[in-house]
Batch of 4 targets.
Target 1
Amino acid sequence: MSPPPSASAPLAGAVAASPVGEADTGSRSNSLPRELSDFLLELSVALHKHAIYPPGHPLLAQTVDAVHELLGALLQERGALSIGVARRQLIIEGVATDAGHPLLAELAAKLHRHHVGAVKFARGIDRAELSDALSVVGLEPQRDAQPLGMQPELIQSRWVNVKLFPLTYDRLQLLDGEEAGQPAGGVRGGSHSAQLWVGLARAAIAADRGGLSDDASTDVAMEPEAVAHAIDEHDREKAYDQVIVGYLLQIAREIRVEGAETAGLQKRISALVGSLQPETLQRLLEMGGDAPQRRRFVLDASQGMTVNAVVELVRAAASAEGQTISHSLVRMLTKLASHATNDSTSRGPAADRALREHVERLVSSWSLDDPNPAMYSAALEHMAQNEAAPLVDRTRADLTCEPSRVVAMGLEMDDIGERVLRAVTTMLDAGALAPLLDLLDAAPFPAGTLAPLIWERICVRDPLREQLAESRVDHALVRRLVVRTGPAAARPLLETLDRRPEASLQERLLNYLSLLGPAAVPAISDHLAAATPALARELMACLAKLAPPDAPSAVSEFTYHPDPTLRREAVRLLAGYPDTREEALLSGVRDPDERVAYSALLAAQAGCPESVAVVIRERMNRDEWEELAVRAAAVRAAATIRDDATLEWVLSRALQVGGLLRRTRLAPPTPEVLASLNALATYWADDPRAEPALTLALKSSSSSVRAAAQRERASTMA
């Protein structure tokens, strides 16, 4: 599919490291890979076409195919693809798009108008689900209807592999260009700097699911400490972090130039950096793109932030780069920062300049190779690690040695001793479970005698349940425990899903269940009957991802559940298995809820059993389905049975007799009629009985009717 003229510019310029779209002649351009740029452009074109063409139009099918092909290639290398949404930019894999690119700026603006803060595509998304998502998101928000981000039930239950994350910043005053005269927490709204700060605060507070109370004032929400607290305490999707990283990149570039307009932004972003936890700041810097872009960010920030914030940034950047800064150098930088801040004499500005110059030289030198020969560096490292230990009393029963070192030596020799077991207990009592797992992962004899014994001692304390019971879950540690525990981890995860309904936590737990593979299917199936409707829906979606070899028997009961969303998930799942496909499709097409029937009709397009086709034709003849998309899907599903009865039925949907001379002519071009013509061109193009309808269609003045009847185009859509 060829992009429209506005998208014909070189793709390398469409997505750049400069979030504000300014040229940076002093740094190397850092662009997204070509495949990500192509996908974003194709996604923008697809949403635009879904906004202007009616459902069932052939051009929509072509653009859905193009997006699905590009997305499938991207998801082969990734478990999921997350896209953060700023007001006029998208943030993907730590890089922000150019705000001046017309297609990508319009895509970001459309999602922002829907109050969507992030979009996530998961591996396993099929064409039908993608098409439905594009048709919903492509429509512009109406004044008399709520945006998608304000309809949580819709965006949480409609799709399995497409997730929309809402922006819930209703507690913040909306400071845009048209409200330039209104102040907000000391930041002037008419400037670009003010908009950047408000955008960052929105992203942080929207992701904080329990930080501020509903009656918190705008001024409090805008304060750097409140924003830092929200970022520190967040527990959400990677896409939200990408939004925050995008704003940080923009702000760093904005404050390079000193002025009255950026002074307030400099103070606020400096206070924010100083209030963030070191590990949070390091994580954000790690997400900020590749090493050159990270260094560019630190250099930009070092020219505009306060000296204390610069020191914090250097520490975090060193950790992200895998570099080591000596304590002496840190003390020197801290001393310079103290003089620059507190010394009112001429030494203050001199210390300020010296600190920024040292930071620039330090960050630039991280890319240099080690000047020492390899053998010399190895000798220095050996000497540093083998300093003479102080003399100890050999008669003491308990030598002074770190428990981790004792465990490491025991694992190296695979030797079980009372001292090693006491060290393991000491580490567990001190909460050092993660370092203990690190030692087990690095053990030279993982299947020896000591490593399994240590793991048994860990399991006695039931660490997975302990971690899941914490108010703030350490997800990195939980993931490691789940992988090590295997199928037995399914029960604690399911119990936590029952006990803690937080949306962000539930999604993480469901992902952990997916890590267990088909071995977790029995536990999930047993848990379905007692689960709440919302959880049962998510568990069935999880089962679909796990793809067990046989259909879980517990799912069949949900095809008759009062909740239509559960019936829909059950039909989707059971339709994927030969033994349950026909019964599931029959249940779906007979369902009174059109959403359930639509899911069954989409599944039936891959091959419709005769019994299902009979029900489809009967319901269509009785006009029991009102939605145009449902009726079109019904025609496509029933037409997969290529017999005479089906041909006559399809012709009856495409043609009608009317006028004074009672001539046969085409029915009005509804999606149902277009689908009928498409089926005739796909399956019966050489049949003389279909020729009159196709001939009339090819002579039609409607381009959509002619396109549906063209055999080559129809065959590509099939």
Target 2
Amino acid sequence: MAVAARPYRAALMSAVAALALAIPAPSAAADTSSYLEQAVRLMRDGNLEAAEAEAGQAMGDPATAPVAQALLGSIRLQQGKHAEGIELLERALAADSNLLGARLNLAQGYELAGELDSSEEQFRAVLQRAPGNHAARMALMRAELRKGNHREAIRLAEPIEDRLSQSPRGLLQLVTGHLGAGNIGAARRLAAKWSALSGVPRDQRMEFAYALSKGGLNREAITVLERAKRDGLGSYELAFNLAGFYLLEGDLGDASANYELAVGYDDRSVPALRQVARIAEERGELEKALAYLVRAKLEVPDDADVQFSFGRVALRLDVIEDATTALARALDLRPGHRATRYWLGTARGAARQFDGALEVYQGLLDQNPSDPQLHYAVGSVYLLMVDFDRAAAHLQESLRLDPDQVLSPHYLATISQKRGDHEGAAAMFAKVISGHPRHGPSYEGLAVSQARLGLYEDARRNFETALELDPDSARASYQLGQLLVRMGLRDQAQAQLAVARQLREDEEKRLIVKTLLNPH
């Protein structure tokens, strides 16, 4: 029981001091008390063998036998002979119940032996006889914390809070009690005292930071571990946990920096590699995410999650072949996994393998017929296959199941446009825009139909809005150039068409992936 062992040495020496005060005056027959005094000195020096010999000399005198038994019991506890030590201490107390040091050591012995109820009973007996006994009060505080009685733990700690707050272990217990009781302000005040401590080992700093974070004080936990870094106590575990605290605070930049620091300590750590990749993907740093996933994949080539993450990021970067290979491998490792199947279907669609994509999506839809995402996916494949009737049927069902989406109604308007119904398409695009006023492709679609209807100024205005929302849209840029030609603005048209040519490269693949991924 490592937790009990930490405070044990200090409590033991306190108990030894109490036993020294209990040594009786010398008797006329023999000065056995001198043996006890010598035994106490030797115990304080850590010379247990010699102390045992001296205490044994006092066992024959009834006046000193109880204290001698108590000292021998304390020695046995230090030697790890818990059962024997407990027995000797019990005998000493049976002979003299006023031996406070013996009772304190008996409580510690029970704790070391795992007999927590008996230990608590003895500590309470000590505190009843000596309310100022710090060791007993601290032990009872730990017991209440262990049972989740945080308010009682705080009550017990009140008389010794100043002393407790001067040690790492004491501060940890106080903060744990206040956080458990919901006293966030008191816990924050106590946490500020941590900076006054010096020479605290790394493990205790991490334990304190974890307790703070568990209670919701992530910023205070970060302060503790950042100071540990400045004090030269950095390690893989510290960096990884610090990154986690930053992540809980929504600070992706510092979280990533510390996960990368963890990778610096252990460049084969798959959890750290994956976290860097995950944050990079979330921040749109896809090349960085892919680089870290490549490293993770080398470490655990048969990890389905790593293969899946790699495939997803590779697909978003249009590395279609590698993405398909990784997603297929992930599905082999985790057959039937829905997300993997979905992304594999997307990869096939991006490779223009529409039949293969449809096979995957339709299989998922057969298992989940009320899923709007899957109806959208199937409809988007049919749209790419120019099968407008089937596309419209699935897109309408997707929209019925989930009215709060943008791409299903957008592509339904696109289908009307491709069928030549520009008035109907314009009305549908306008409706999409009313609900989603920052959806650039719908402004573009509306402008295309308006141009076909001869509404050139309206079309120009909507093309320009589309490009404000998505300056990289080659299609909108080209369509605006063509419109400017029709309007007789040739110089402006030529400049716009030159921009369109620069944007066109690789857009088709990106649009296919985007089309297949999500209806929202």
Target 3
Amino acid sequence: MRTISALLLSTMLTTAVSAQTGYWPEARAKEILAKTETIRLAPDLSRLSAEERSAVNDLLAVGQIFQRIYEQSRHHQAVEAHRKLQALKRPDLLDLYRLNQGPIATTLDNKREPFLPVDPQVPARNVYPIDATKAEIEAFLAANPNLRDEILGERTIVRRATKANVDRDLAVLAKYPVLDTLHPTLAARLRSAKGFYAVPYPVAYADDLMEAYGLLRRAADKLAPSDEEFARFLRNRARDLLSNDYESGDASWVTGRFKNLNAELGSYETYDDALFGVKAFHAVSLLLADEKETAALRQRLGGLQAIEDALPYTAHKRIREDIPVGVYDVIADFGQARGTNTATILPNDALFSRRYGRTILLRRNIMTNPQIFAASERIWRAATVEAHHADVASVGDFQRTLWHEIGHYLGVDRDKQGRTLDVALEDYADAVEEMKADLVSLFALHRMQVDPATLRAVQSSGIRRTLQNVQPRRDQPYQTMQLVQFNWFLDKGLIAADPATGRLSIRYERYPETVHSLLQEVLKLQHEGDKAATAAFFDKWTTWRPELHDKLAARIREAQGARFRIVRYAALGE
């Protein structure tokens, strides 16, 4: 009995110490991990040549660097906390770190809490001073309007102008003369900085991006004999990482015709910036092409200008109709790209898009993953009345996702003052843009010659996308815009909820009119560029009613099984 008591006491003390020092106890971690499933991606790389496989290893190493930058940019203590966690040997907390890409967990009630001994997450993340508020920076910009573009630049880190910060950044320029050459006015601006200043990513992450530069150049040399265009893109992107100007890489990426491999490399998406919504975060997505499916898909696309001209707004634009689109299997994703993202359209820059177009990357082994579709089907059946249970099909998700990405290319890309949308709408820009893409997708597919079964699958997919298992936070642009759509669909009578069960019935005949009306409103918000009006719109349409939304969310949570997913990659030995 004494031995057992001592063992119990030791366990209790260990748990208490862990809790006191900021590490979640095992029971707390298991609450989330019990609702987490693992997706493993293992595409067949056997058709790659020895040189291509060697280049893949270099690109995977770049991905690991970008993963570290991503974690660091989201939380100032992430990298050190992860190092200590590895020494602690807590597999449960290591899984939580992998799931959340950092030391802040999303809880079952959609809160963000540290599970390691680190500071709470702040809206500034680690791309602005962690103690800075939006009001403080806005006041600084009001007094120094000439610094707005620098401070709110998408690939800059904002710092307080302390002597320690300035000296550190000047030391980086001295260590790497190439950076001083590529950014010739930076040293002088640093020496005269007061209040706040910004440094480009290659200075903020100099050691990491210099290493990535070398790896990309080495991969390009290996690929040049077999795929010269992809090699040229990698060389351009390597230079981009040091110059902080992505035009050469984006131009060669979008217009290139690659063979077996493709890759998203850089910092593009701004979803993680919870302060101003303008800072882009690092990502790598290494992809294996399916040339046959890509060729077949490209043959089916066309007539994009006619869809653009039919959209319910007046400031129409001329577009490039030959959007490069490809079907790929994910080899590995890193940073902002990691997860179960089904597709991407890049670049986001309106000028580059007009000059060179955009490229669409469809991730087939995510889009067709049976675990993911099974969960989607369970949610649909739990949320709708029995008459609609057979409406869903994977083809609906595929078509809706494809046209969602095309939807980013269509419609408003600047407001009536000529400002880009991230400048005009700031932290609302991502939510509005994603909603526009959703609605353009549904609008376009209703106008096309789609067979009735496919159209019904697309329609059900569009409604399924709006279903929430928990009330969204305002710093979640995807979930927020989905809630807006759900509430709009309710208001216009496309969907109706049974008061007793919360299950939804659908009046499909109201679909075109409902989508048209919301798309018209969203395009107007983008064109006007009025942030206050956009805020009022979201305030109105993000209502969450316990008797309706909570009831439906509870039904979804009960049916869906896993709520979170950890993606692991065979190429990384996982």
Target 4
Amino acid sequence: MPRPARFRIAALDELFRQLRFAPRETRMRQMNAAEALIADIDPQRTYPADFIIFRITGYRPDRADDSPLLVGEALIGDLVVLVQRLSEGLALPADYAGRRAMAVEEVARRLSVSSKTLQRYRRRGLVCHYVVFPGSATEGGSDDDRAAPAEATAEPASESSCEIAPESPSGGRLACFDDAVQRFVQRHRAALGRAASFTRIERSVEERIIDAARALRAAEGLSLNEAALRLAREHGRAHETIRRLLRRHDRRGERAIFAEHGPLTERDARLIHRADRRGVSVRELADHFGKTPATIRRALCRRRADLLLELDIGAVELPTFSLVDAEAVILASPAVTRQLDSLLPREDALALIEQARAARQEGGDEEREAALIAGYNLLKRRARAGLEALPAWPGSAALDRIETDLRWATRLKRRLVSLALPAAVRCIEQFLHRPLVTQPADRIAPLLRRAVEVVSATIETLDPSQGGRLDRRSTYAMNRALAGPGSAPAGEEAGSFTKRAAARHEPGAIRLDDVFFGLTPWEELLELRRDLAARISELEDPPAEELMRLHYGLTSTPPLTRAAMAERLGLSPSAVGRLLHRGHRALLSLARAARR
């Protein structure tokens, strides 16, 4: 029995599982709604899953804040699968709703394409139904005949997952209604014209292509993809056609031209992730490993998910999280969305101390601290929940939302540390009985780093609902740290260094290694490298610079996902991805040039 078509999007796979045993009228209504929706989907856009479910079922969830975004191109193919799978067992007549059904073989002849090409058209929006033609064995069967199809799987679909099953398990035959074919022709007229003019490659031409590919490999060391691209131009064929021809030869031939890499291993995934962070494009990686770009992206997403799952993301469960619309209210607070770059000096110890000493508690500080702590813990909580819900092969949009939440949480942590440092510095000076700036240079930096560590650890357990104030808790923790073992410099008795003569330092003489970096365990993984961030103003590509700043939160506002930037700037997510990649590569070039 032919294998039923499979879903690529987990949300639609789950929807089908819920609908497969629904009453006949419900299945027909939602089958028709899914078919109507296909005409409204733009392959280049993304759509919230909750919106798609609402269009099909009429049900709108109460909250759609975390609704995943579905890529239009994949969505069209899965909606076609949903229509087909829902039509099984409905015993649709060949003149259903006044339409005329054509068997898929007739559709292929009418469009002058092969059955394989027709399979690909289904993923692009050609809608098929299982229909009972006059005179078939199932004509007049029971309306309640709803034989359960084989279970669908949400694993990444291979080409074979698009195969047309001519007959359903309940006896219907796969067909296209005339109006569905007409809509598809109107939408893809240019592509259909090219397909109709396609001719098979003759055996003699195929042999010449293979010989030419062998010569290119030997003379220039071209990859399979590069050789296929060049030969496609020379022979007036599609790049993918030549690439498939060469791959088929290597699988069957006695002497393979291009060595097959085999399935990607965990080590390959690590190399792919490292190369991606170093600016290597997906296309270059695909050529190197002899894989398709889609395979490389899946491996990259899987590696990103594995690294995120290794993190220990703890969060304090605050009472406010259980309130209605807590997430929307907490994450809209001005303290959480504005002035996130308002920090004490990062790398100048004397300037940091001077500003910390000058800091004064202002009205509203308690509310601001509570809002920051709530936002920090809520973002960690949401990221952790997103990780727990990831499928085995996660999509890049879901990972991007999780990573963006963690970047945002990092900025809130930095803001909290900056607000609490003045209390820690005052505590140190009380312990020393003198201003911190009068200490020897080799003592100031370690004391400041110790203060940052203590404040950072305090923030991780702070619960404002229990009456804890950030400055008081930080002062208490700093006093304990200074009184404990190891507070004195190495080789000296505790307290002896407080008796040294006061030192004088020139402004800017004592440098720090960015005290606000490394406050969260995911920074090394998710943040833009510090040497690259320092050069972002040198980019000569304004769109790429703007997107880099927005994505990594190098502004006073929270970082944005690719989808959010696309919506804000009127671009597609893929265009945003290309601009980010372009900006990253340019920054890497600037950093390399500076090291020469």
